[in-house]
Design a protein that fits this description.
Radius of gyration: 25 Å
Number of strands: 30
Oligomer: single chain
Shape: elongated
Structural class: mainly beta
Strand content: 25-35%
Helix content: under 10%
Number of helices: 3
């Protein structure tokens, strides 16, 4: 019995190490925001002034400042707490203050506290259509900035409360949307005239660039469950999965470049993983056309754009879709393709007569896939700057 328990513990530990849970602070999804910024960016915490996160390729890594120091997300360093403006996790936001001044309510961009020395002497909200501006020490016209998440409970009401200023960063809802934080903490947003905002370079580009739209995901609301530790694949995002905590399924995310494999209940490299049927294989794709999950003939594929896929198409009868070649290939090669391409796991050459082509099948006259009008025009990434928006790629 002890041996079985030890084996189970080892297996659970291995699974946790292989597929990490998303880092959450209330409704602030730190893991998600890390996909919106360049690798190496540091993000502030909304639970504690002494904590911060470093965004790595495998997700956020939590760090802490030394005793007596607080994290300054604007300067990206720890400084003496008396010199850092931070109000997160403080029972008394007036602590350490001298004289009379106003400080923000961090859970409501319209909210403020009035400090008389280090005592709270009053609190309230700015009028409708106004928000509190700490630097100006007054209410100013403007709506509260929106984030890609919701705002129930402990929440991030403004990305510019944790993201450093003077940098462009992306959205998880739309591939060509960008955000920008000015030094005063004002959050602005816009869209690229091209098909994608490239997080790694901070410029506008095209969705054909490797990983350009990997951050764009659509996660369904978790359902209730009662078996603690039970795993469930995400129906729409191949790199996501759920773990039951005994009451509800909690969203988790596989490491960068991997999908949740429904056969092994583990995270496996994108090419080898056997994903949930119907999930979006445009995530982490490096080619414009990809295999749809198909365990019958491996003859379906779709075009990737802005991190999303178009309608499913079929290869001509007697052929399968080869993602590496970006073409429909003779069915005889399927036996060597399926062992190394999990999207087609279980597919085999049929023994009966060939089936008639489907309504969206490719022409039998040409086996090579042509992107046609669906393919965005390509261009160099030499930016030409424009005021108020990130650089756009110049066209050849």
């Amino acid at each position: 019995m002890a041996g079985n328990y030890l084996l189970g513990s080892i297996l659970c530990l291995a699974l946790v190490n292989a597929i990490g849970a998303q880092v959450m602070e209330g409704t602030y999804n730190v893991t998600e925001v890390c996909t919106m910024v360049k690798t190496g960016t540091q993000l502030g915490s909304i639970e504690s002034c002494s904590s911060y996160y470093v965004c790595t390729k495998s997700g956020p890594v939590k760090q802490s400042c030394s005793a007596g120091y607080s994290y300054n997300f604007r300067a990206q360093n720890c400084g003496p707490s008396s010199q850092v403006e931070c109000y997160y996790g403080m029972a008394n936001p007036c602590s350490g203050k001298t004289g009379s001044n106003w400080v923000p309510n961090v859970n409501n961009c319209q909210g403020w506290y009035y400090c008389n020395g280090d005592k709270i002497a009053g609190q309230g909200n700015c009028a409708k259509g106004e928000r509190f501006e700490m630097a100006a020490q007054k209410c100013i016209y403007g709506e509260c900035p929106k984030t890609d998440g919701n705002s129930v409970g402990l929440s991030l009401v403004n990305y510019c409360s944790v993201v450093p200023p003077n940098m462009y960063f992306g959205s998880t809802h739309d591939c060509n949307t960008w955000y920008f934080c000015n030094p005063q903490g004002l959050q602005t947003q816009g869209t690229c005239s091209s098909s994608a905002f490239i997080v790694s370079s901070g410029v506008c580009g095209y969705d054909t660039a490797p990983g350009a739209c990997d951050r764009v995901v659509n996660a369904p609301v978790p359902t209730t469950c009662n078996i603690k530790g039970a795993l469930k694949a995400d129906a729409t995002t191949c790199g996501n999965y759920y773990v039951c905590n005994g009451e509800i399924y909690v969203l988790n995310q596989c490491p960068y470049g991997t999908y949740f494999d429904v056969d092994s209940s583990n995270c496996v490299t994108r090419k080898l993983a056997v994903p949930q049927p119907g999930c979006n294989r445009c995530q982490y794709a490096t080619t414009p056309f990809v295999n749809a999950v198909n365990d019958q003939l491996c003859d379906t594929y779709y075009y990737c754009q802005n991190g999303n896929h178009g309608d499913v198409s079929e290869c001509p009868s007697g052929s399968y879709f080869n993602e590496a070649d970006q073409a429909c290939a003779p069915l005889a090669g399927l036996v060597n393709y399926t062992p190394y391409n999990g999207a087609c796991h279980g597919a085999a050459i049929p023994s009966g007569p060939p089936k008639p082509p489907g309504p969206n099948s490719a022409s039998t006259g040409s086996k090579a896939i042509s992107s046609g009008s669906n393919a965005p025009s390509t261009g160099s990434n030499s930016p030409s700057s424009g005021p108020g928006s990130p650089p756009s790629p110049s066209k050849n």
